[in-house]
Amino acid sequence: MPDDVLPQTETIRLRADGGVLYATFDAPPLNLIGPELVRDLVWLIGRLSGPTPYRAVVFDSADPDFFLPHVDLTKVPEYTAEAARAGGPGDASLGMLYQRLSRLPVVTIGRLRGRARGAGSEFLLACDVRFASREKAVLGQPEVGFGAPPGAGAVERLTRLMGTGRALEVLLGADDFTADLAERYGWINRAVPDGELDAVVDRFAHRVAGFPADAVAVTKTAVTRVSSPSDDEIRAAAVVFQHLVREGSVGPRTAWLLDNGLQTRSGTELELGEAMAAIGPDQS
Amino acid sequence: MPDDVLPQTETIRLRADGGVLYATFDAPPLNLIGPELVRDLVWLIGRLSGPTPYRAVVFDSADPDFFLPHVDLTKVPEYTAEAARAGGPGDASLGMLYQRLSRLPVVTIGRLRGRARGAGSEFLLACDVRFASREKAVLGQPEVGFGAPPGAGAVERLTRLMGTGRALEVLLGADDFTADLAERYGWINRAVPDGELDAVVDRFAHRVAGFPADAVAVTKTAVTRVSSPSDDEIRAAAVVFQHLVREGSVGPRTAWLLDNGLQTRSGTELELGEAMAAIGPDQS
Amino acid sequence: MPDDVLPQTETIRLRADGGVLYATFDAPPLNLIGPELVRDLVWLIGRLSGPTPYRAVVFDSADPDFFLPHVDLTKVPEYTAEAARAGGPGDASLGMLYQRLSRLPVVTIGRLRGRARGAGSEFLLACDVRFASREKAVLGQPEVGFGAPPGAGAVERLTRLMGTGRALEVLLGADDFTADLAERYGWINRAVPDGELDAVVDRFAHRVAGFPADAVAVTKTAVTRVSSPSDDEIRAAAVVFQHLVREGSVGPRTAWLLDNGLQTRSGTELELGEAMAAIGPDQS
Lengths: 284, 284, 284
Hints:
The structure is a homotrimer of 284-residue chains.
Chain A: E1 12-17, E2 20-25, H1 35-49, E3 56-61, E4 66-68, H2 76-87, H3 94-102, E5 107-117, H4 119-126, E6 129-140, H5 143-146, H6 154-173, E7 176-178, H7 179-185, E8 190-192, H8 194-209, H9 213-226, H10 231-247, H11 250-259, H12 267-270, H13 272-276
Parallel strand pairs in A: 2-3, 3-5, 4-5, 5-6, 6-8
Antiparallel strand pairs in A: 1-2, 6-7
Helix pairs in contact in A: 1-2, 2-3, 3-4, 3-10
């Protein structure tokens, strides 16, 4: 990816500024994590795994309401097949794709405005650092409300970041979190006033892009060695998730939510934390 | 425990609301953790280990000043014998009883008003989540001031929740903590204004009670697997505690405190953090 | 070190108050961690490893601007040789000296005013607890900006204290942190208003000094066992650091900083976080 011929993808817009690459999710209508977005993410992660002029990547969203809302629940086999292109059929999961993301030699930075829920939050958790708009960010892991534990690293990473008590509150409650509470719990590095967020992220990204690349890569690897989920943990979580999505109560509960506006720019999707508690008991 | 014939115990009052069981400690005069309360806790944990209509349990206290102040220091052998009924003589400790609590398939929620110190704090730490009244909650691990490390999981759980520096401050300082500071340190999930505490707890309890039970149980087990003390760690802590209580300086220091109002509704018990620093040096 | 004939060292002033020893770094002009200060630290840690009337040690600085700014970069072989006197040539590193500090049977307390960066921050991290002046404390790990990962425990301890996301921000960003942000991240126990800092530290130090010494020592060991870096981790970090300092881009970047006021009471040293981003790209 030389600076002057930056390729574009269907769902991720790329822009370079010196050693910093800005990758903006732009998959209307909702930035759902579906086959196209996963395909483009596989490509981008692959490119950043090799030689690149970039030292830091900032991930953000073109949609002010949605960073990455969650996976496309109508296309689980399709996006899983795309994820498998990164690691082979034995690693056919978003979780393992995110493991590759977390091990890139470049520094990955999440800049969060709008909603990051489910595998959208798990994407952020696999980035190195996460800064969020105090006014405009919303985080959630709604999976248990659907009927399955999160399958792409949230259990493993949130527990390490915030301890068991808060991780259980987040994961079992399946509720929405403000940026302020997410900061207090350690889900994100910091909640920043929206007007200052871009400056905070740009300053950090350009600093690290200017530091010696070998020191950055060695340090990142060393931190990861102290505390991060193993591939085996992530693979096991993916197996449980994929099994429960096929067999358990996920089907009827998802169907109820889809009937009530899920995956459209609706109140259900905007206030998913509320919606999770409104699913009829006959769907449980 | 069918909903319509809810049994009662001598020291724990039970009330059901849908899938949520409210368990209220009510062991006058002080809610000391003595043989009767441990006996009732063993029974309740046993019942919740099997089939039950409840999906979430809220633990609180009938005494506005004391949640669980600490163990009855005049009846250590007696309550330990009761605890042994849960796990057998090899697991004769509150710590191992709390391990069983932490592994219940139902969600356990601490609602804290008043003082939770020593094994009272360790009870909360073995619950899944902990919410506390900002104005009325007090937490403490005074054991080191008595002359022994905590023996029922505080070392193991606090270190994982808040890191070594803050855990050492809590454990070596043997001081009282406000809810606000306890939240900043990660001891509790959140300090909530007293007027909002019930609503926060009820909302959370009823949410999780409405979610698919298998997803809740699988997720809880997965979180525990990432970060929680092993049975061997807990057994070792109990052995050290029980040895130091019998042999060390615990005797004279406890005697001094008992002479000065410990285990009565006194200033010593209300402000135990202060009292720990007032014990005469000839008792150390 | 009997109370009445307290020896003094060239760079660390000692004062006793009951069971509390106050150790004040006083190595003008800047409190750089050089051969003399390391020599005195080796001596002090050795003395505190054996029988001593002291139960708690408070470390602070005579210089209002600098607690410990960082190592003397012009004397790395010399101070390393001094550190080797503590553990033998196989453990010739500040990191291993700090491991000994972290295992002292007495309680170690950092009272931070001024700047603690690099191995100065790592010294604090090896203390049991850390309290900092809200107005006057500054923390930083600038090593990656020099071109090497920290080599004396920062990677291993910060990751355990604050989780990967925040540790990566601190370590890769090489920026200065206020006491408030350091508290939010768990780097220090607490940011305390400057006018209250001495009282908070004195209260804590005298409390723990009055508690039974065996309970304190056993508890400290137990906490350390739950979460602290192994000697092997620390040794490996020292090897990487020493290698990169000799071979990598550390040389030219350090030279640029030394030409611009590093190791003098200059703007570069006072605002090192800013200076790290100003190093010319031809030095990277």
